[in-house]
Amino acid sequence: DAGVIQSPRHEVTEMGQEVTLRCKPISGHDYLFWYRQTMMRGLELLIYFNNNVPIDDSGMPEDRFSAKMPNASFSTLKIQPSEPRDSAVYFCASSRTSGGAPGELFFGEGSRLTVL
Amino acid sequence: GENVEQHPSTLSVQEGDSAVIKCTYSDSASNYFPWYKQELGKRPQLIIDIRSNVGEKKDQRIAVTLNKTAKHFSLHITETQPEDSAVYFCAATRGDSSYKLIFGSGTRLLVRP
Predict the structure, then answer these.
(1) CA proximity to B40, closest of A26, A68, A37
(2) How many CB atoms lie within 10 A of CB B41?
(3) Which positions in chain A touch B43 (Cβ < 8 Å)?
């Protein structure tokens, strides 16, 4: 298996532009998570899905952020309009429940976003 | 809501010494506690985890202990090596049976040769 695949790996954009980050989870995994990592705030959970359904989006910073999972093999995180404070590494991760218990989170390589 | 505190934020040890990283959690119903290692510029990767029905788990040079009464758990690395240098994150699930992992703030471990 290729693991969790994220694109783009790097994105540099100007303030006000729309940013779309993409994620392909590991086949067979039923949970998908979007995390944001910064030096100041560490690893923050933004939103997670179970069987393509958003379960908890309480970590989404504000209305400028939205996430979708149209099918089991694809998810997007969109920022519109982007701001310099959105600059961070965005990780997608997937997991599979095991015996009704949480399974290991497998992270993608991350998308490094820089908003100028 | 769930909160996970991690200490220390940085740790420097001599090669061969032991390293201990400690975490506390706030939700007494939390039941799953993984530890992730993140090397510079890389993704976090699971190194060990423990569930609330056991008090200790060991995997070669790495061990994790859990004290449910005090609501804290610790990572122990023995015979440290330079390749152990990385940022280590603890995490805990919320106690409502969800799979929402809350991470600690991370510990930057430096192993001096």
Answers:
(1) A37
(2) 9
(3) 91, 107-110
Pairs from A94-101 (Cβ < 8 Å, separation ≥ 24): A94/A4, A94/A25, A94/A26, A94/A29, A94/A31, A94/A32, A94/A33, A95/A29, A95/A30, A95/A31, A95/A33, A95/B99, A96/A26, A96/A28, A96/A29, A96/A30, A96/A31, A97/A30, A97/A31, A97/B99, A101/B31, A101/B32, A101/B51
Whether the CB of A25 is below 8 Å from some CB of chain B: the reply is no
Per-residue pLDDT of chain A (116 residues; tens, 9 = 90+): 689 999 999 999 999 999 999 999 999 999 999 999 998 889 999 999 999 999 989 999 889 999 999 999 999 999 999 999 999 999 999 998 876 667 789 999 999 999 99
Contacts of A99 (CB under 8 A, 6+ apart): none
- A5-7 and A53-56 strand pairing: unpaired
